[in-house]
C-alpha cells in the first residue's frame, strides 16, 4: 500500500521565470513524479528532461546554475519557499508544497533562476581578498599559525561565495553599494594570515570607503542564513574595531 502511494505521489512546483535580463518575470507551474531522496536540483533535472508545464504546454526548459552538488561551490543559490539557500541541499521531503523557486533578488537575473553574482566578486576584488606572492616559484614553507588561530580562521575560509548572506541582508540592494558581509569577513580572514597581514591596511582602507563597513545595519540576517554557519556578525564586529583603530592611527600619524 505504501509503495503504491509513493508511485502515485507528485511534487508541485511554482517557478519564477525570466527569458532575459531585460524581460519581465512570470511564474510557471510544474508537476513531476516523486522519488525518495530527491532534492531541488534533481527535480529541476526532471523538468528539463520533460519540459511540459501543468497546462500541457511544451516550453523551453527551466535554466538554473549548479556545479558541485555538495554545498561547496555556492552556484545553486536560489530562493526556495521564500528562503535563500542552496538547491542541492534542499530535500523535497523537507519542503512544503507547492515548492516555490525564485532567483535571488539581490543580483541581476540572467535567465530564469540563473543570476549574475558579479557584485559579490567585485566586492572581494575591492577588499583585495587574496594573498599576493612574489612570483610563482617555490618560496618554501610559509609561516606557521597557532592552532587556536588556525581553527577559527578555517571557519571563515568555508565561504563559498554563494551570495545567500547578501540576499538576506536588507542593506544590500540596488539603491546601495554596500559590499556585504561576505567581503568583510574575508578581510578578517586574510588580515589574520601571517603573510596576508602585510596588506592589512589596504584592506581596512577599502572597508572605510563609501559602501564599506559603515553600510552594515546590524540586522544579523546574514549569520542566521549562512549555509556554512560562518560567524559573519563576529567578523563585522572585529573589522569595525580594527577600522576604528586604523582611523585613529591615521589621524595621529602613527
From TrEMBL:
<dbReference type="InterPro" id="IPR025192">
    <property type="entry name" value="Succ_DH/fum_Rdtase_N"/>
</dbReference>
<keyword id="KW-0001">2Fe-2S</keyword>
<dbReference type="InterPro" id="IPR017900">
    <property type="entry name" value="4Fe4S_Fe_S_CS"/>
</dbReference>
<keyword id="KW-0004">4Fe-4S</keyword>
<keyword id="KW-0560">Oxidoreductase</keyword>
<dbReference type="InterPro" id="IPR017896">
    <property type="entry name" value="4Fe4S_Fe-S-bd"/>
</dbReference>
<comment type="similarity">
    <text>Belongs to the succinate dehydrogenase/fumarate reductase iron-sulfur protein family.</text>
</comment>
<dbReference type="GO" id="GO:0009055">
    <property type="term" value="F:electron transfer activity"/>
</dbReference>
<dbReference type="InterPro" id="IPR012675">
    <property type="entry name" value="Beta-grasp_dom_sf"/>
</dbReference>
<keyword id="KW-0003">3Fe-4S</keyword>
<dbReference type="GO" id="GO:0006099">
    <property type="term" value="P:tricarboxylic acid cycle"/>
</dbReference>
<dbReference type="GO" id="GO:0051538">
    <property type="term" value="F:3 iron, 4 sulfur cluster binding"/>
</dbReference>
<keyword id="KW-0408">Iron</keyword>
<dbReference type="GO" id="GO:0046872">
    <property type="term" value="F:metal ion binding"/>
</dbReference>
<protein>
    <recommendedName>
        <fullName>succinate dehydrogenase</fullName>
        <ecNumber>1.3.5.1</ecNumber>
    </recommendedName>
</protein>
<dbReference type="GO" id="GO:0008177">
    <property type="term" value="F:succinate dehydrogenase (quinone) activity"/>
</dbReference>
<dbReference type="GO" id="GO:0022904">
    <property type="term" value="P:respiratory electron transport chain"/>
</dbReference>
<dbReference type="GO" id="GO:0051539">
    <property type="term" value="F:4 iron, 4 sulfur cluster binding"/>
</dbReference>
<dbReference type="InterPro" id="IPR050573">
    <property type="entry name" value="SDH/FRD_Iron-Sulfur"/>
</dbReference>
<dbReference type="Pfam" id="PF13085">
    <property type="entry name" value="Fer2_3"/>
</dbReference>
<dbReference type="InterPro" id="IPR009051">
    <property type="entry name" value="Helical_ferredxn"/>
</dbReference>
<keyword id="KW-0816">Tricarboxylic acid cycle</keyword>
<dbReference type="InterPro" id="IPR004489">
    <property type="entry name" value="Succ_DH/fum_Rdtase_Fe-S"/>
</dbReference>
<dbReference type="InterPro" id="IPR036010">
    <property type="entry name" value="2Fe-2S_ferredoxin-like_sf"/>
</dbReference>
<dbReference type="Pfam" id="PF13183">
    <property type="entry name" value="Fer4_8"/>
</dbReference>
<keyword id="KW-0479">Metal-binding</keyword>
<dbReference type="GO" id="GO:0051537">
    <property type="term" value="F:2 iron, 2 sulfur cluster binding"/>
</dbReference>
<keyword id="KW-0411">Iron-sulfur</keyword>
<feature type="domain" description="4Fe-4S ferredoxin-type">
    <location>
        <begin position="150"/>
        <end position="178"/>
    </location>
</feature>
